[in-house]
Amino acid sequence: MSADAKKLEAEILAAIDAADDAAALEAVRVGVLGKKGSVSALLKTLGGMTPEERQINGPLFNVLRDTIAAAIGAKKTIIDAAALNARLAEETLDMTLPLEVDPQFEGRIHPVAQVMEEIAAIFADMGFDVAEGPDIESQFYNFTALNIPEAHPARQMHDTFYMQAEEEGAPLVLRTHTSPVQVRTMQDSAPPFRFIAPGRTYRCDSDQTHTPMFHQVEGVVGDETTHMGHLKHTLEAFLAAFFEVENIAIRFRPSYFPFTEPSMEIDMQCHRDGDKLVVGAGDDWMEIGGSGMVNPHVLRHAGIDADKYQGFAFGMGIDRLAMLKYGAPDLRAFFEADLRWLKHYGFVPIDVPGLAGGLSNKSLTTLTSAT
Ligand code: DAH
């Protein structure tokens, strides 16, 4: 090797030795092996040499380049290991500190959403589908098809929100109940029917137990033989599963709804102990919804042969069910979007309600709500 090359090698090895972090080493590498680096420049001189000179210098320069590259590689390993050791020494984990709350435990499922999931899980287990309909509804579906003709007092009783937009010459409405979904769903399918329709409903009303927007669940079963015994059993089975008790008796009280004949209020067995309410025991009763056998007029509006098919229907307030089950006293608070309220009454997202895993498994809520 020429004296120059020897000197260059010594200089470079010294520079590599002196580089004490990754950036300094990289600077040396670029200065030596980069496009304009000193060793690269040396290699380029081979082109201008005579074949004899090239025969001697070529291998020498290549050895020089390989030696330097190996030295840089070795130094890099040392620097990386040192950097890792420094990081490990610096980043300590203080096991005495409490764990930070995992973000997945921070959000909460609203009790109404939770109860809707619970209701869907119970009825799905009984073979019901979940049907949906629009919140903005025509007067035909909200009233007429449900056997509530125009001058009928029931239309006034519904405290309806009327929209400016019209359909077929009549203002659209915010649906006052989930019953219109009965007609829409029966229209779009064929018997036998077995569905629930949970959703938002609207009435111009506000006090401790009424909000202008609230939630109902409708249920319909229809075929050639469905009768009131099926209705009673379905409601009892649902309520026992929902309130997570062995049995709940219900009783029917005669009532009137234009869309059912006969029509009954549903009362659920309960027991009041001061402020405390116990369901599924005792000799008191609490109204939780309306029901009946679907009026043949409604079946006909849905295009169903009312001489061949019959069915039952029921409607319940979801918010009311949530208040009863989870002990929230004021309905208005449900819709005030107060995070403190939601943190108290809400559910942890991963506690998905299911009949097998527990309907309202609040174990994780309890676990994390202390934080
Ligand atoms: N739609 C009624 C309401 O909002 C509730 C209801 C009563 C629904 C009886 C039904 C029923 O399906 O059969 O007050």
Task: Give me the number of helical elements.
Answer: 13
Count of DSSP E strands?
11
Cα radius of gyration in angstroms:
38 Å
Q: Give the oligomeric state of the chains in this entry, treating copies of one chain as homo and distinct chains as hetero.
A: single chain
Task: Summarize the structure in short.
Helices cover 41% and strands 21% of the residues.
Plain-language structure description:
The strands form 2 sheets. Strands 1, 5, 6, 7, 8, 9, 10 and 11 form an 8-stranded mixed beta sheet that branches. The radius of gyration is 38 Å and the shape is elongated. Helix 1 (3-18) runs parallel beside helix 4 (51-90) and helix 2 runs antiparallel to helix 4. The chain has 2 domains: 3-90; 110-368, Bira Bifunctional Protein, Domain 2 (BirA Bifunctional Protein, domain 2, 2-Layer Sandwich), CATH 3.30.930.10. With 371 residues, the chain is an alpha+beta fold. The chain has 13 helices and 11 strands. The protein starts with a helix and ends with a helix. The model is unreliable at 363-371 (pLDDT under 50). It binds 3,4-dihydroxyphenylalanine (DAH). 3,4-dihydroxyphenylalanine is lined by residues 177, 179, 218, 257, 260, 290-292, 313-315.
Question: What structural keywords apply?
Answer:
3-stranded antiparallel β-sheet; alpha+beta; 8-stranded mixed β-sheet; binds 3,4-dihydroxyphenylalanine; BirA Bifunctional Protein, domain 2; 371 residues
What is the secondary structure topology, with strand pairs?
Layout: H1 3-18, H2 22-33, H3 38-44, H4 51-90, H5 111-125, E1 129-130, E2 136-137, H6 139-142, H7 153-157, E3 162-167, E4 170-174, H8 180-188, E5 193-202, E6 213-223, H9 228-243, E7 250-255, E8 260-273, E9 276-279, E10 284-294, H10 296-301, E11 310-317, H11 318-326, H12 339-345, H13 363-369
Parallel strand pairs: 1-5
Antiparallel strand pairs: 2-4, 3-4, 5-6, 6-11, 7-8, 8-9, 8-10, 10-11
Helix pairs in contact: 1-4, 2-4, 3-4, 5-11
Bound molecules: 3,4-dihydroxyphenylalanine (DAH).
Residues 177, 179, 218, 257, 260, 290-292, 313-315 line the site of 3,4-dihydroxyphenylalanine (DAH).
